[in-house]
UniProtKB/TrEMBL annotation:
InterPro entries: Glyc_kinase_flavodox-like_fold, Glycerate_kinase, Glycerate_kinase_RE-like, Glycerate_kinase_sf. It comes from the Bacteria. Belongs to the glycerate kinase type-1 family. PANTHER family: GLYCERATE KINASE. NCBIfam families: glycerate kinase. Keywords: Kinase, Transferase. Pfam families: Gly_kinase. This is Glycerate kinase. The keyword Cell membrane does not apply. One of its GO terms (molecular function) is kinase activity.
Length: 370
């Protein structure tokens, strides 16, 4: 059969990056057919791995040193192509940057994300894709805005300390010093989170506990975010789907930066030119560490399958483990799934030797589909 194989996986968290997964599967395919035309398009869902997907598709890497969630220096990177830049919140303000035993629910800040945006503007970006997810903070995006020039003041005129907890003392927000380049750029908020900013389904109540907040701190943060929202905007932005993304960074992005929210997976698929690479393909291989019910709700493999099926191209998935029944897989567009757990039940070895085992799965895919 003519046509190439398009390999478009997400990362296997804790084991392999998305480009690493793609290379391993390609190696297995080529063992069976050395001349097989293969194209690779590592993907992500707008969270961790979004910049890496852009870099793998040809974007230029720009290293940036910024402040981390509690102010410590962090070496991050953005991806730039012409006047478009990709910024990943997790690289600067991510929960994974903190010691799990030393989380900072009240004081963690999104300031580093604002520094990444500023670096993108310095590179001449006119369109900035802001991938959010996995944040350590619940500060409503206040830190992000202060890094871009806003000032947050208490009643006595002093500037607030970083973090969502300090917003309880907010009296005035001064946007006079906000970097004017921000308002001239198009900001795309890449997020599948549809939570509002406040209330029982808001940023503090739903995601605060994951960031170390106890019940009392959750209530404090929710009240502080309400005070923040009243000071920033008189409109209904706080109620919009996605305002609660990344501890409220979604709110600040939409209310102040004029960001437009799009599904993260769709944004990344467009960034890497997935539809163009799909043309003429005979098979698509996607996947992630765990294929489960979450996969079907906005995760990258589901987005890949949806577009491939619409183009009439069969899709198979590779995964560390698969918890979906054959019927659920078929309903989501997957013709088959291949899991590392089927050939290596030892989870630690499976994660440690993921590349070699994925090569073996690639051989099976080639033998059964090509």
């Amino acid at each position: 059969m003519p046509g190439h194989v398009l390999i478009a996986p997400d990362k296997f968290k804790g084991s392999l990056t998305a480009p690493g997964v793609a290379e391993a599967v390609a190696d297995g395919l080529r063992r069976v057919d050395p001349g097989l035309p293969v194209r690779m398009a590592p993907v992500a869902d707008g969270g961790d791995g979004t910049v890496q997907a852009a870099l793998a598709s040809g974007y230029r890497r720009v290293p940036v040193r910024v402040g981390g969630p509690v102010g410590e220096p962090v070496d991050a990177e953005i991806a730039v192509d012409g006047d478009t830049a990709v910024v990943e919140l997790a690289a600067a303000s991510g929960l994974a940057l903190l010691d799990p035993a030393a989380l900072a629910p009240l004081t963690a800040t999104s300031a580093g994300t604002g520094e990444l945006i500023r670096a993108a503007l310095d590179e001449g970006a006119r369109t900035i894709v802001l991938g959010v997810g996995g944040s350590a903070c619940t500060d409503g995006g206040a830190g992000m805005l202060t890094a871009l020039g806003a000032r947050l003041l208490a009643a006595d005129g002093t500037e607030l300390a970083p973090g969502g907890g300090a917003l309880a003392d907010l009296d005035l927000v001064d946007f006079a010093g906000l970097d004017p380049r921000v308002t001239e750029a198009e900001i795309i908020l890449a997020s599948d989170v549809d939570n509002p900013l406040l209330g029982p389904k808001g940023a503090a109540h739903v995601y605060g506990p994951q960031k170390g907040a106890d019940p009392e701190q959750v209530e404090l943060l929710d009240a502080a975010l309400a005070r923040w929202a009243r000071a920033v905007s008189s409109g209904d932005v706080a109620d919009r789907p996605g305002a609660g993304a990344a501890g409220g960074v979604g709110y600040a992005a939409m209310a102040v930066l004029g960001a437009r929210r799009r599904a993260g997976t769709d944004v990344v698929l467009d960034l890497v030119g997935f539809d163009r690479l799909l043309q003429g393909a005979r098979l698509v291989i996607t996947g992630e560490g765990s294929l489960d019910e979450q996969t079907l709700h906005g995760k990258a493999p589901a987005g890949v399958a949806s577009r491939a099926v619409a183009a009439g191209v069969p899709v198979v998935a590779v995964a560390g483990r698969c918890q979906l029944s054959p019927d659920r897989l078929r309903a989501a567009g997957f013709a088959a799934a291949y899991a590392l757990a089927d050939i290596e039940p030892d989870i630690e070895r499976s994660m440690r030797e993921g590349a070699a085992l994925l090569g073996d799965l690639g051989e099976r895919v080639a033998a059964e589909w090509l």
